Amino acid sequence: MARRKTLWGRHGLPSSRPPVQFYARALVERAARGVYKAALMFRVDGKIALVTGGSRGIGRACCEALADRGATVIVNYVKGEQAAREVASGIGARGGKADIVGFDVADSKAIDTAIDDLIKRHGQLDILVANAGISVDSLLLRMKDEDLEKLWATNVRGSIACARAASRSMMRKRWGRIVFMSSVVAEIGNAGQTAYAATKAAIIGAAKSIAREYASRNVTVNVVAPGYIDTDMTAAMTPEQKEQLVKIVPLGRTGTAREIAAACAYLASEEAGYVTGHVLRVNGGMYV
Ligand code: NDP
Fold first, then answer.
1. Which residue's CA lies nearest to atom 23 of ligand 1?
2. Is residue 196 annotated as part of the catalytic site, yes or no?
3. What is the rounded CA–CA span in Å between residue 281 and residue 57?
4. CA dihedral 15, 16, 18, 20 (to 10 degrees)
């Protein structure tokens, strides 16, 4: 007696059922293409979001995560205009909305001009991911004052100045989300990263203070503290250094930019409306 065809077989496809991973992968791919948009959690529909340092690495992933969840994303860059254009056009190709804006976060005047201008153009600014950052590593005795100043200007003053400029629109609208990018080294330290760790720790203090200052205006302010993530910033590490590093990560691997972006998307969403002044550690268990 002929075996009854499976549902799969009746649709003209091979009669053996594909493995469960096939369905899972198809679902994820369709979600990424926007087919199941309504099913994605942490929507930010209709919001205008600025991601500083959105042209590469973690910032790029944040742009994509926010755009996939319905925000119009402004991709900031300092040198990588072409890369920023590619991020924006990639978002456009997936059915999202994006624009680019170039300014140096170490230049407070440039920040004010650019952010005022984009608020005029888009009518509002609801979400800021203050992600742009640099690292300059050196042992304390070899540390140069100019590196210390450069790190401070970009990582600390830059993030705070962006928050100050962006918050004007958020205060008016009585709705806003500010997410600062810190680092696991802010909390555990790292030999050779004194200046960088200091800037990333400063961000936590700033975020907690702004969180208290803006809570009455329904503007939340939080921090994401990534562990070691595969981006250009960590690309200079040798395979041996990476191997050593992974040994101290309980989850046994480095993180991905998408994993950091997912945390940012959550903190930017309506669902995170009662979370403020929080440091969300996304570090594979490196510091708990
Ligand atoms: P990348 O070096 O890969 O990317 C840095 C991004 O910041 C680029 O888009 C760059 O723009 C932008 N940028 C740098 N300086 C400025 C500036 N002065 N003004 C405007 N934009 C600027 O870094 P990551 O993606 O790895 O890091 C992003 C953030 O995450 C940083 O704050 C970093 O400290 C933090 N972080 C990273 C970790 C990691 O392991 N990668 C771990 C913990 C924290 P352009 O393309 O124009 O140069």
1. 233
2. yes
3. 18
4. 120
Per-residue pLDDT of 94-107, as tens digits, reads 999 999 999 999 99
Tell me whether residue 27 is in a domain. Answer: no
CATH number of the domain encompassing residue 198? 3.40.50.720
Q: Edge-to-edge strand order for the sheet containing 219-226?
A: 97-102, 72-77, 48-51, 127-130, 176-181, 219-226, 279-282
* Domain extent at residue 168: 41-282
User: In this structure, is residue 17 part of a structural domain?
Assistant: no
Q: How many independent structural domains does the chain possess?
A: 1
Please state the φ and ψ torsions of residue 277, each to the nearest 5 degrees.
70, 20
Which tens digit of pLDDT belongs to each residue from 150-179? 999 999 999 999 999 999 999 999 999 999
pTM: 0.89
144 SS3 class: coil
CA of 216 to the centre of ligand 1 (A): 31
**Distance from C-alpha of 117 to C-alpha of 53, rounded to nearest angstrom:** 18
